[in-house]
Design brief:
Elements (H helix, E strand, L loop, with lengths): L12 H6 L6 E5 L3 H7 L5 E4 L3 H4 L11 H14 L5 E4 L8 H14 L4 E3 L7 H8 L5 E6 L5 H4 L9 H16 L4 E5 L3 H10 L4 E4 L7 E4 L1 H4 L17 H17 L11
Parallel strand pairs: 1-2, 1-8, 2-3, 3-4, 4-5, 5-6, 6-7, 7-8
Length: 269
């Protein structure tokens, strides 16, 4: 039983910003209406992450996700969880310059009920974030280990291992905050560095693989619920052995079909 009472409150950008130093924010991914409905009144933020390309579509990384894919899944999430604060993860290649970023963000707002978008990048993307926020687009930033940089970086690399890198991360975070981001995800960063980043900002920092020193946490639902079996990242905690439970249930279904135990007389018309 949870020792913390969950009083659901529909979130908005203002409430999320005010959560800084007042409430630890809970964010989780969702890609469909069914799971979004389950998460709706528990999570503060639902992220339609481009991680769907891996956990939903079976791809090796996030890079081939398209904007049309993201819009499709965001509409499903918004339909299942209309009261949720939903963020669409802008996929690789959709914000390479200010004009394309704004055109694609406007498309998201026009075709979905997403409350905000998320983009990866630090100082190098500050001008794009500024252009978006100046045109009424709510932007969540993402710095540190950035999955869309996996090929150019030569893999997934933990950040903040040196003071020089930590200071760069702080500069990245501040640049995105000053550009108007209402919240920033910090991924794959040593906790000491994540703490410094969090303390340097006036907007909430949501961590993933960054220790418990941030203003909130985010996890991919299939990781958290134990459905992804290929590997378990160090920063993931399994709150359910989902894969085993599903396999056991489907095996029982198969057995009942083969023995004609299902359907029973009570399950006939």
């Amino acid at each position: 039983m949870s020792i913390i009472k969950n009083d659901f409150e529909k979130m908005n950008v203002t409430k999320i910003k005010k959560a800084k130093n007042n409430k630890n924010l809970t964010m989780i991914t969702a890609y469909d209406a069914l799971f979004a409905k389950l998460f709706e009144e528990i999570a503060d933020i639902i992220l339609v992450g481009d991680s769907l390309n891996m956990s939903f579509a079976g791809k090796p990384d996030t890079l081939s996700a398209t904007l049309d894919q993201m819009i499709y899944h965001t509409n499903a999430v918004c339909a299942g969880a209309p009261k949720a604060f939903v963020v669409l993860d802008m996929p690789f290649g959709t914000y390479i310059n200010k004009d394309e970023a704004l055109t694609n963000a406007v498309k998201v707002y026009q075709q979905t009920n997403a409350a905000a978008i998320k983009i990866e990048g630090g100082e190098d993307k500050a001008d794009i974030v500024k252009h978006l926020t100046s045109n009424s687009i709510a932007v969540m930033g993402h710095i540190g280990l950035m999955p869309q940089y996996v090929r150019s970086e030569g893999g997934y690399k933990v950040r903040g291992k040196t003071e020089e890198d930590t200071q760069q991360l702080i500069r990245d975070a501040k640049a995105i905050e000053e550009a108007g981001a209402f919240c920033i995800v910090v991924e794959g960063v040593l906790s000491d560095a994540a703490k410094k980043i969090t303390e340097a900002l006036n907007v909430p920092v949501i961590g993933i693989g960054a220790g418990n020193v941030t203003d909130g946490q985010v996890l991919v639902w299939s990781d958290m619920l134990g459905f992804f079996e290929e590997f378990k990242p160090k920063f993931v905690r399994h709150y359910l052995d989902g894969a085993t439970l599903v396999k056991e249930a489907v095996n029982k279904y198969r057995d009942d079909v083969q023995t004609r135990a299902f359907p029973s007389k009570e399950e006939e018309y």
